[in-house]
Amino acid sequence: MRPEPGQVLHFSEDPTITRFVPHVAATAQQPEAYVWAVDHTRAPDYWFPRQCPRGMAWVTETTTGEDRERIIGAGCGDRVHAIEFGWLEAMRTVRLYAYRLPADRFVPFGGGGPESHAHVATAPVTPLGPPEPVGDLLQLHAEAGIQLRLLPNLWPFWDAVVASTVGFSGIRLHNALPRR
Predict the structure, then answer these.
(1) Quick one: average pLDDT of 125-149?
(2) Contact call for residues 54 and 171 (beta carbons, < 8 A)
(3) Domain residue limits at 83
(4) Is a pLDDT exceeding 70 seen at residue 115?
């Protein structure tokens, strides 16, 4: 489930949204109101239940061979997503929807270029059509060649990731189990 050219996606468990209005998210680190969306590269970051804590890591041009093997794993592709065992059932059963939105209403957020982790709009946006069921999230990961790692606790993995040379993103980490 990825956007087509000229589109960005917004993922939601709510299939009834007819218009996206800018708002300040509860977890926002900035005061501006936005409509949030993601592009082709960052869409897999949202193949999860909304509240699911996840740590994601991928190979970049500056990733060392040692970090690639240690974090991603030998022969395991270029990307890994990690969640805690307690979220597996939600991964299997959540009904997630993708809204296709016109990309020309959005600007990159988070550094621009490859550092951008999202796209934002400051005016209301109407979806290009009805929301599409995303389907089996485990299958999406498999088809994209992204390993999905199940862990008893996310923090040891996350600490290793942020101290390495891989690219990374963490979402909803405040929902992870406490550090051991």
Answers:
(1) 96
(2) yes
(3) 7-175
(4) no
Q: Cα–Cα–Cα angle for 111, 112, 114, nearest 5°?
A: 95
Residues 6+ positions from 37 with CB-CB distance below 8 Å = 8, 9, 10, 101, 106, 118, 119, 120, 121
Structural domain contains residue 180: no
Residue 63 domain-assigned (yes or no): yes
Calculate the average pLDDT of the chain. 93
Query: Could you give the CA distance from residue 170 to residue 55 in angstroms, rounded to a whole number?
Result: 5
Asked, for residue 152, whether it belongs to a domain, the answer is yes
Q: How far is CA 111 from the centre of its chain?
A: 17
Please tell me the distance from the alpha carbon of residue 33 to that of residue 180, in angstroms, as a whole number: 36
DSSP 72: I
DSSP 41: T
Give the model confidence (pLDDT) of 20-53 as tens digits. Answer: 999 998 777 788 999 999 998 899 999 999 999 9
Residue 94 falls inside a structural domain: yes
Q: How far apart are CA 43 and CA 40, in angstroms?
A: 5
* Long-range CB contacts for residues 160-163, cutoff 8 Å, separation at least 24: 160/70, 160/71, 161/55, 161/57, 161/71
Structural domains in the chain (count): 1
